[in-house]
Design a protein that fits this description.
2 strands; 2 domains; mainly alpha
């Protein structure tokens, strides 16, 4: 019989069922038992392992191809990805690529424009559209991914049983393993992942682009295994990093980088600093010009011209710096000894010094504009 309501009852029963079971069993366990440190640690390790398999595997490897790895690592991602209970890698990547292609539009399966709860989890309660192979044409040829997709349901059950029974065997607490190692771990992992689709489009800053709803938020990154720098990700989706600064909390980035040092990952894609800075300048220019349109100032036209001058000059110098650095790397790679390398290094050093000075002036000028009084109501 055709489901006229378009609701996916198997998903509704599963999600609703385990949430209800957790709400009942967790208080019962805590009333009669005390969880051991080993139980909590193993449950946390499993939470992080399954979470990183989604972010490093499903997301940055399969969905965006930001790096390459071997079949061994791929199988590990798929094993713990199946345990994460978020669908097969093919289905996940298919939906995620549509999300990026149509962000904030009706075609986006978890568009935030339909509300926080739709983006967070309600979209999962509806029957999903069939997979279009052309969207994941690079993935459907992979036999390992096809195997997981074809046998996903049984793999999901088996992997979760293995994880839960292992924790129960180590701790001799199978009830605790069920509550903490499966139910609570599943609950946290699901909602942490769903925060990327919901909260990371609501609460934060748009440092790189205001053309989409994604935002950057350090606190969200703590809960989402480093995926909280979402504005950057939607602006530069092909970068293997989400947090680009050394102090940004991005364990997924650290995992991929570590794998590369052991030659288990290669071809890590990364946007260079000049390109990032250029995008930030363009976005800041947009914000400053918008502020000036809302500001009463006799010198507004002069200020607008100065904004354009600053941005064009900075972008021109950044582009020149990018070219010089590329030339230097080419010379260094060729191992040809030439005096031109020294000249390049001197030119790069002078250009960096000039950029640093102009960047400080740009920041001071920007601060001045943002403090101008708005037009009277």
């Amino acid at each position: 019989m055709k489901n006229k309501s378009n609701l996916n009852w198997s998903t509704i029963l599963f999600l609703g069922g385990y949430h209800l079971l957790l709400a009942i069993l967790l208080p019962v366990y805590l009333i009669y038992y005390t969880p051991s440190a080993t139980l909590l640690v193993l449950s946390f390790v499993l939470l992080y392992t399954t979470g990183l398999s989604i972010t490093a595997g499903y997301h940055r490897l399969f969905s965006h191809s930001t790096y390459k790895t071997n079949k061994f690592i791929e199988v590990i991602y798929l094993f713990f990805g199946s345990m994460a209970t978020q669908g097969s890698a093919l289905r996940w990547s298919h939906d995620h690529r549509i999300h990026h292609a149509h962000i904030d539009k009706d075609e986006d399966p978890y568009t935030v424009k339909r509300g926080f709860w739709h983006a967070h989890m309600f979209w999962l309660l509806k029957n999903q559209k069939p997979i279009k192979e052309k969207i994941i044409s690079d993935l459907v040829r992979d036999p390992v991914l096809n195997f997981q997709h074809k046998h996903y349901d049984i793999l999901m059950v088996i992997t979760n049983a293995i994880g839960t029974l292992f924790i129960g065997w180590v701790t001799n607490d199978y009830f605790g393993a069920l509550v903490f190692g499966w139910l609570l771990r599943q609950f946290l992992l699901h909602h942490f992942t769903w925060f990327i689709n919901s909260l990371a489009h609501y609460w934060g800053h748009q440092n790189y682009s205001t053309e989409h709803s994604a935002v950057d938020n350090y606190i969200i990154s703590l809960l989402t295994f480093g995926e909280g720098y979402h504005n950057y990700h939607h602006t530069f989706a092909y970068d293997y990093r989400n947090g680009i600064r050394w102090y940004h909390f991005d364990p997924t980035k650290w995992l991929i980088w570590t794998l590369s040092k052991f030659r288990l990952a290669k071809d890590l894609k990364k946007v260079n600093h000049a390109r990032i800075a250029e995008q930030m300048i363009k976005e800041h220019k947009r914000a400053l010009l918008e502020k000036l349109t809302e500001t009463f100032s006799e010198k507004r036209e002069d200020l607008e011209q100065k904004v354009s001058y600053f941005t064009e000059n900075l972008i021109e110098k950044l582009s020149k710096l990018n070219t010089l650095v590329a030339q230097y790397k080419a010379y260094k790679k060729s191992r040809v000894k030439t005096d031109h390398i020294k000249e390049l290094l001197n030119e790069i050093a002078l250009l960096k010094k000039s950029l640093k000075s102009e960047w400080r002036a740009w920041k001071e000028f920007s601060k001045f504009i943002m403090t101008l009084e708005p037009l009277p109501a």
